[in-house]
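Hey, why these numbers?
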Amino acid sequence: MNEHQPAELDLPLERRLGKRTAAALEKHLGLTRTGELLNYFPRRYLKRGELTLIADLPEDEDATLVARVLSCSTRRMRARRGSLTEVVITDNSTYGNLSLTFFNGYQAERDLRPGTLAMFSGKVTRYQGRLTLTNPDYSLLEDAADFNADEALRPVPLYPATAKLGSWRIKSAVEILLDSVDFSQIGDPVPPDIAIRDGLLSLSDAYQQIHRPATIEQARGARERFRYQEALVLQAALARRRAQAVGEEAIARPPVAGGLLDRFDGALPFTLTNGQRVVGAEVAAELAASHPMNRLLQGEVGSGKTLVALRAMLQVIDAGGQAALLAPTEVLAAQHYESIRRTLGPLAEAGMLGGDDAGTRVVLLTGSVTGAARRNALLEVASGQAGIVIGTHALLSDEVMFADLGLIVVDEQHRFGVEQRDKLRSRALRPPHLLVMTATPIPRTVAMTVFGDLETSVLSELPAGRAPIGTHLVGLVEHQAWEHRIWQRAREEIDAGRQVYVVCPKIGDEDREDTDPFDAPPPDEDTRQLASVVATAEYLATVQALAGTRIGVLHGRLDAEAKAATMAAFNEGRLDLLISTTVIEVGVDVPNATLMVILDADRFGISQLHQLRGRVGRGGLPGTCLLVTRLEPGHPSRARLDAVARTTDGFELSQADLLLRREGDILGSSQSGGKSTLRLLRVITDEAVIAKARADAAGIVAHDAQLDEYPELAQAIELYLNPEREAFLERG
């Protein structure tokens, strides 16, 4: 038995439910322990006799519904032995009929007579133009008239179910637990003073009322109790991690008067924004402390995050340490390398001809740096000669040894797992300082939940000279002639001496999409041939409006040398138009690029579109982004494009993203490698609950960082943090 879990919750389901039921719960839901099933809450509740709207059923997904039988007929099959029983069920609306098919369904023929009310569970598919369920599981329901008055009011809990394990079978198993568990043996994670303050249900009553409520109001009260409990457990875990970080011993890296940072600041040809000064002061103070900095730096595309990070690196180098910058792609790592070397000038060329002897060295380590260049880079890192080391996952290789790693800067944190970050941290003599940068604006609720163990800074203003970006939705269904106008518009920019990006969701026609799986919209029935880099390059070579222009292509299947050569050509103005996948999404900085055309833009998510358009308008000239779609007006996916066209405020867009996308996409596989970690808590609607729990957790941990006086809360954290959820917490 797990010593951290109460015996009642840790008991195997087989001991309470029998081998057959326990095996089904493990096979279909992955549940093996009493506590796991008790915490498998209903997703909603039905009033007795309430019918499910068939028109709302999700196609190609498992569904559970309540409906009345309209007709039932059986016929012999011609091609093989046996019979087919066809049942038509209805929700009593004009179009609400659904066909069910049972192979050799003798029991279904007896049970499902016209007028019968039943609950059905199965996979919704379409056959010959009609919605259907094949061999569904079902459970007969009595009519409300057959109940006594109290029973008629009792809601029916609906659990997340599968085609092979219906909601009513889960309900039956839960009811056995409710009658057999000794709730007096289960400690309450919510401290008594908080439960009294908020008038929360007892744990025993909450479990009873969430699984078998007498009224919808009872279910609502139980859900509110568990929602707060979930928020408190999560926030206490994060607060404990913050306290542990403060207790770790790092090497202090205080500013050094007259050092590299002072000399760099003195040579800057522009003035820092107010935000850069404020955040820079926060970072400088934390680097000077003897416990590790753990800070998340949010900032709009082009707000100057990299400059803040570079100044932090120079402070660490002045204090004798090294800084590593971890980037998600080779293109971005190379961009950072060139940009930082260019920005530092002679300060990045210590020991080289024309370099500043009091400066440092910057090295690049990616998978494509090989041979003598790689050996030299590794030597400079190991000897401490290189103060700034920039790379991709190649930095995590065992052969990379640092002399004194003092600061890790992680760019676009959502692309890295906790194992990768921790592997780099382990290279330091003592815990290094950590600065996480993201240009994907994070709403306050998500920041409190996902990055809750990091302090947060926000750069909200853009540097002087950054031009606005105009974004326009180009609907080709209603405006077919606009397709030609797009390329005429591109030619106008090129003739004015500017450059153009064209972004496609695929590399070639045979490829899957190149959209971010964590950010892209869910796939639908879309059978369009999506734009690809290869096909678009072939097509644009024939477009008269672009005759004589210099066109290049960039995508992830090109080798590193070809990618670098293409980006260099575009950077230096030797290409007019670059056709690319999302490889240019982050970090790519070409000041002369003023127009971006995103083909099949509906295949990208909101934050990806926002990131992409941030590549134009970076040189003081106004930028334009055209979101091209072939979806018809009114299609749900166009709502995302409307949102992006409406505003360039990343925080407003991130809120729209939360509202438009399913919760599991926000806090699901991208965060934990599995389904949504959150059971009842919803970052969209529960900001007040999360904020209250965060304040309560901070108070608890400030009083008792080890939670010795709160053993039930400590146990709940252990129960909550299975390996997937631990990764969810440690994404910061």
Notes: Residues 602 and 641 are 7 Å apart (CA to CA). The mean pLDDT is 82. The first helix runs from residue 7 to 10. DSSP finds 28 helices and 21 strands in the chain.
